[in-house]
Amino acid sequence: MQPEGDIALIGLAVMGQNLILNMNDHGFTVVAYNRTVEKVDEFLAKEAKGTKVQGAHSIAEMVSKLKRPRRVMMLVKAGKPVDDFIQQLMPHLEPGDIIIDGGNSLFGDTNRRVKEVEAKGLLYIGTGVSGGEEGARKGPSIMPGGSAAAWPHVKAIFQGISAKVDGGVPCCDWVGDGGAGHYVKMVHNGIEYGDMQLICEAYNLMRDGLGMTADEMHEVFAEWNTGVLDSYLVEITRDILAFKDKDKAPLVDKILDTAGQKGTGKWTVIDSMEMGIPITLISEAVYARCVSALKDERVAASKVLVGPSPKLNVPDRKKFIESIRDALYASKIISYAQGYMLMRAAAKENSWKLNYGGIALMWRGGCIIRSRFLGKIKEAYDTNPNLTNLLLDPYFTDAIDKAQTGWRDAIATAVRAGIPVPAFGTALAFYDGYRTARLPANLLQAQRDYFGAHTYERTDSPRGEFHHTNWTGRGGDVASSTYNV
Questions:
Q1: Is 192 part of the annotated catalytic residue set?
Q2: Gap between the Cα atoms of 383 and 365, Å rounded
């Protein structure tokens, strides 16, 4: 009997099951496998009942049911489980077959795996998949990278099941070699951290500062979702604020204020430090979650440490809500500008040819950060593929200019009232730093040269010419070597 499977999928958690059903809906025959094989039978008897999905109780059986070249996709926990499954798969595959990692793997691991798998004559794809359970079922954003020769063999499947925007354009295209796909997904997740924190700060200003109820805030977010802030995360915030518990009270008010994280935001921040790129907003979003986790310490500190009352006495509440909206939009622009700065640096470091407008299109639908705003980013890079910074695109320059007064007012008011707005604040600090022609780093370089002979450049000398001063008269004239970490 000839094999009928177009692709196999390992891992039958919710994301895996939904992707399989999505593939089935689009006419692809999927072979389902799970390490705990009982889950295979349960899936076929329930969720996949009446579909063309085939089950397998061993890797050998799974591979035997696949057409050539065999395509095997893993949706398993990042790290060692991915490496373990690769080792289990390779003896059953032949040159030209394709292993696909659809989990949230660290891009460096994907770089390594591409080389290891290709050395065995196989092909490897590391792909970001974003959109959560709903996206997996109805159409996610898919960001594949790895062995370029594998793309033609998975393109129809990936683009077929992905979200569609702008009259049917798939939110999926080839990103680049090695770990490029997982890198773009990592940055996506970092930006997601930033978006969520920004929305939380807007919510906090309205709740603690203006004393607004969940229902009142629901109305605000519903209005915001019809304008430039139209996005999936604003939309679900609107819905969350309207959701009532069994006693008819807002459920959001009963949720403990301590946030979890799975690590992709942290990876983004760590890599930005390696690259020397200031993604300050994503960093603050990660650290805000860390501060939230100190719940018991914060409760104890609240009884000892003093500060102003968070209750705001603003003369025009409606106008201040507009200032909060301005702060949210302007800060969002900064976050994406920083994320794109990081991707540009990574592309240079790894010799990737990233299509920045194409990435915005891939994020335009299906994924967690999908929004109207991303269409403007695509337009910016379509107009100027060599744009050095999103802030220099005329649309975003103008948008920041229009939002700036309200942005500054929201932050200043929050600071005076002792309401923490770390992401709003760091976004503005970056903006002011980036637009400043002369920063105080000249003093910093003098300090470094004073205590460590680290040298400095002069305003009256060519760039790249370094100098050292014997500041005390007691030091020598020998300078430290010049380098940047």
A1: yes
A2: 21
